[in-house]
Amino acid sequence: MRLGALSTVMFVLVGLPACTTVDLSQVAVQSEAIPAVQEEKNVVERASLTLTSVFRDKGWCSGGPQEKTQTATSVLLNGVKATPASKQKSDLTFKSEEQLAAALAVANEHVVKTTKAAEVFLSMTDEMADVDSELSLLETALLSAREAKTRFDKAAASSQSSVVRQDFQTFQASVISLKAITDQYGDHARTTIANKSMESRS
Question: Where are the alpha helices (DSSP H) in 32-69?
């Protein structure tokens, strides 16, 4: 009897760890966090948003209500901070010719990068694809770049440096290229709307 009772107790004690292991495993599986699904922005959206954000932050353009896509951009930027009032002025001032040249180089880099991203993306986009989001952000980036061009123009015009004036001409040409690709996105968007309209009627 005593041997039988001891065997029963040993059986129960040996079985407990196994049961505990199974229970903990189940709890771990149930408590595992489910990763949140986030919609990633494509290369055109990222480049456009970065350009607009940098230009506003540096005071090269304003974030005023005249930008018709301001609301959409602000939402995608998750509430980008408005340019401080001290920076919202029509004229840009620089401490030296070198500082102006450096600013023009940075501005031009962002415009070129956005233009190239837009060109490559559009070349790989199906003719029926929706590009409304990309177009909206490109329009905002273009408005920012054109306002910056006007402000840089005043600073470059008063400069005695031929290098600065050449840098401004390069930046101006880049803005023209950005406008051209933005216009192409507009053409694509209108063509897509027309094609979808024809399909719905057929």
Answer: 43-57
